[in-house]
Write a structure and sequence with these properties.
Chain B: It is a peripheral membrane protein. Chain B: Keywords: ATP-binding, Cell cycle, Cell division, Cell membrane, Membrane, Nucleotide-binding, Transport. Chain B: It is found in: Cell inner membrane; Cell membrane. The complex is a heterodimer of chains A (275) and B (244). Chain A is 73% helix and 9% strand. Chain A has helices spanning 2-34, 46-61, 74-85, 110-123, 132-175, 177-185, 190-228, 233-236, 242-271; strands at residues 36-41, 66-72, 98-104, 127-131. The longest helix of chain A is centred in the middle third of the chain and has 44 residues, at 132-175. The two termini of chain A are 30 Å apart. Helices cover 27% and strands 23% of the residues of chain B. Chain B contains seven helices and ten strands. In chain B, a hairpin with a 2-residue loop joins strand 9 and strand 10 (222-224). Chain B starts with 6 loop residues before the first strand and ends in a 20-residue tail after the last strand. The chains are: A alpha+beta (275), B alpha/beta (244).
Amino acid sequence: MPWVIAIMVALTVVAAGGGLALDNLADRARGDLAGGVTVQIVEADPADRSEQTRAAAEILGGDGAVAKMRIVPQSEVAALVEPWLGGGAEMEAVPLPALIDLTLTGDADPATLGRLRDRLAEAAPDARLDAQSDWLAPVLSAVSALRWMAWGLIALLAATSAAAVWLAARNALGANRDTIEIVHLLGGNDDQIACIFQRSILLDAAAGGALGLLAGGAAVLVLGAQFALLDSGLVQGGGLGSGDWIILGSIPLFALVIAVYTARMTVLASLKKML
Amino acid sequence: MNAPETEIVQFDNVGLRYGTDREVLSNVSFTLFSGRFYFLTGASGAGKTSLLKLLYLAQRPSRGAIRMFGSDVITLPRERLPAYRRRMGVVFQDFRLVEHMSTFENVALPLRVAGVREADLDGPVRDMLDWVGLSHRADARPATLSGGEQQRVAIARAVIGRPDMLVADEPTGNVDPEMALKLLRLFEALNRLGTTVVVATHDVHLLRKVPESLIMRLDKGTLADPTGALRYPPRRVAAGPTDR
């Protein structure tokens, strides 16, 4: 019995850890990208591109909807495309667009983007504005699906734990039927008899829960460390905070409540069949 | 003048059947009075154990009415039955001791069930073990006790709560005659303290050893009234030669 609860708790901790990490990741990505806009000046002529960039920066810098603006240095743009196009002298022949990174005061909604496009149309006709949230929408959608899957998994594990406890309680009842009957005939009431089983299941669940939390917590820590090594901004956004660890730490308590409640209901249902 | 006797059990036209089989008890009617000593006798299979099961509330009858300690226990809510069971002590035919408990714990069980504090258990349990001569076996498990010792543990457990009624099913069935007589003396001692005693036995020799007793005889599930014990008030059985 303690081993079953330990395994269930460990799996639930891992699933809940994953779910919480995905929650954090989605929230942080959404927060970071909600007001993020990238302006590309796609012009082959370096002088013209530079002129349009300067003009666009001037317009955008003075716009009330823009909270922060940064012209991405050309060296940084070159570094971004280096993995695909390579570096060195040949790169100088490739006309890279100029990039301006904007953070809006509000969300990058279509109305704001349309107004900014209109303002840039004359001074920087080759400027293209893209909301950063559009690029990551499919990724965020997948993250959301994974998150729901994690919570579904937790619900299934809780149901499986309850079923395992129910079976264990039934077995314990069968093995102790004589004792139950004697206590019953000596005037023990249902509550007294159920309490005997609750105490026994409580001890098992407490031992199993502690063991499961240790194993599951260790797995979450190791997985977190592995993902942190990826050094990806998106993945690092999925780290667990102290609140998340408190939630993970409370999982054995939920398991305890489920186990004790299930055992009690099982014993009471069985006792109801006796006079 | 004697105080009027209190009726503690009344069976009225009680029948009992298991499933769809024929009735194992039919039209059973009798009254038990407080402080009396009753023998329930009859051949094996006559229905003694079934009748005792009705008495110690392990079974509901298929028909008829049963009143115990002034209440109709047939219509009583299930939740209220434990309080009535606690007013009875039961010595089962097969003792039914809890195997994983010591002699002390088995005897203490009814007190624990009744909510007696742990600190208050030791004295009464030691006294009771002393009374049945098992003080030296307080820590022994039932499996290590002889048949007679197990019987005495079962009796100690049945009487430790000072029940209003003691029900014993073939309590002398597994012991030698000397031990049987000793056990009977224990029941008589309890009876003198005011407890109503009902002893089921198929040993007719035992009946004469308690001259004050009243006899009920079951024959194929029907209660006979050979001694007038079932009349109101019941007539005392004539005392025969005894080896007391």
